[in-house]
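To close the chapter, one final illustration. This time we ask the reader to focus less on the individual chains and more on the assembly as a whole: which components sit near each other, and how the overall shape emerges from the parts.
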Amino acid sequence: MAKPLILVSNDDGISSKGIRTLIDIMKEIGEVVVVAPDGPQSGMGHAITVGNTLRLEETDIFGDIKAYECSGTPADCVKIAKHFVLKNRIPDLVVSGINHGSNTSISVLYSGTMSAAIEGALEGYPAIGFSLCDYSSDADFSHVKSYIRKIVMNTLEKGLPSGVALNVNIPPKRNENIKGIKICRQANAKWHEDFDQRYDPNGRRYFWMAGNFVNHDKGEDNDEWAIGNNYVSVVPCQYDLTAHHAMAQLNKEWDI
Amino acid sequence: MAKPLILVSNDDGISSKGIRTLIDIMKEIGEVVVVAPDGPQSGMGHAITVGNTLRLEETDIFGDIKAYECSGTPADCVKIAKHFVLKNRIPDLVVSGINHGSNTSISVLYSGTMSAAIEGALEGYPAIGFSLCDYSSDADFSHVKSYIRKIVMNTLEKGLPSGVALNVNIPPKRNENIKGIKICRQANAKWHEDFDQRYDPNGRRYFWMAGNFVNHDKGEDNDEWAIGNNYVSVVPCQYDLTAHHAMAQLNKEWDI
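The assembled structure is written out below.
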């Protein structure tokens, strides 16, 4: 089998430790091409750049590996990679991350890391977003390799169901004894925001958003439970948002 | 019954014609509070402002109606509305739009309009995003009122299934004889991007993203079919992205 072609992106920016770790693992598996944001794009959700221009510049920061930094969002990176970098070559895999911080549960909606993966899935490519549940910029990634490798090899060998991207979260290094990999559903949890009100030197009010993550889910089959119990969580995510069960209810109850 | 409390937001910005139209319809139904972006936020998906500050300023552009413009994304607007504007009051409904342009099918992922609605649903509020399938900034909204009113009254009277927000698209005015309202699933269609490469006055390359919408869906139960056949489409959308059907497949096939 020819070496698989692997497109790598992220949302923390091309100079983050997480993407370097991911590239190091991927280059042992296949031919790596990197297209990643030129700066942090955390919390960008599935944003794309529609009313503004995009920049794309080649960089040698990863040595021999073909790499580009892009001024846009993670979803932009995958789109422009397809058109201007890969051109007629079809990637065997799109990977995004490793994110510095958890993307379990509802955080998947806000996650730039996962938007790159979902954008890959939209194009029909097998795609995975990886996150380490440790927010520090110099987080210890030394324990992630075997889990990422196992998930990637399974994906390359067996493919993924159509219309699905994987959301993978990995417990932090400080949690000893990772017990294994669990296929999970998205936990029913949410962010409870708080806004810190301040005044600038001109006396004008501004805010910083802060938030606490609150888990309402009592199940043991979800990603929050998995991380809390030292498993690597794998949630298959779809981009068909239709609540099919709700269609029958609306058709029955509504007077239209 | 007391007048329902209705929170209004959008992604085209507080001065757009679409939000003015929506406010005019809502103020006949309930007490309206507006928190909307201070400028265009199209294509922002479910982005939130995490590494930057937010501004929130009261404005009298809608006369007696309590209104605020916010420097953040549509999702930010709903979050800050909950904390700083509504405080302990619980809205009976969150509406977003009316977007200048279609948000059918996969566009729901990129849509700032729908992210405000989904953010409302996350908070447990009934929530609806409205879009007019006409991209012009001075689009004709004169035909939308009866459809929006009917959808809002059904929602207020019957509620929505838990974890669901509605994605409503309305055919443009130029399509005569709207046939009614259809509950739909999200069409299986996608954007085929194109990047227009240009050079700035300093000789540096930049890009504009453009795209063509291509419908791969042959069904007659989806939102693209509905709009193409002059129906108002209503897609119930969920924020649990888990592809439940894929969990069994991965558990069976994967060697973990």
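Residues 5-186+219-253 of chain B form a domain with the Stationary-phase Survival Protein Sure Homolog; Chain: A, fold (CATH 3.40.1210.10). The helical segments of chain B are 17-26, 74-86, 107-110, 112-122, 145-158, 223-228, 244-253. With these observations in hand, you are ready for the problems at the end of the chapter.
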